[in-house]
Design a protein that fits this description.
three-stranded antiparallel beta sheet, 3 strands
């Protein structure tokens, strides 16, 4: 005689996914050659370029419902939920292309 037991683990898997997706990720963004870029730009244009750079970074963080914090002149920290990590990777870090356009 064979007895089969079926256990529904759907709720367990949903809870596990929700837990994993809710974990926090921290990304450190460093603008390479920041000093060189700033030296090539005329003094009058620097504030505008810096503002545009920061606007793009903060908008990008907002899209992934993240928090962007400027720590140094060329370094930012972004905190976001794990659920957005695969999206960021699939888009091949599109923020890099946006920043390259105006720098």
């Amino acid at each position: 005689m064979t007895i089969l037991y079926f256990i529904d683990i759907t709720e367990q898997l949903k809870t596990e996914k929700k837990y994993i997706d809710g974990n926090q990720c921290v990304g450190i963004i460093t603008v390479d050659n920041y000093e060189e870029i700033m030296q090539r730009i005329p003094n009058d244009d620097r504030p505008q370029i810096i503002a545009e750079l920061e606007k793009n970074l903060y908008d990008w963080a907002s899209e992934i419902k993240g928090l962007m914090i400027k720590t140094e002149r060329n370094t930012y920290i972004c905190v976001f939920e794990h659920r957005y990590l695969s999206e960021i990777q699939e888009n091949k870090f599109e923020i890099l292309d946006k920043i390259k356009e105006f720098c």
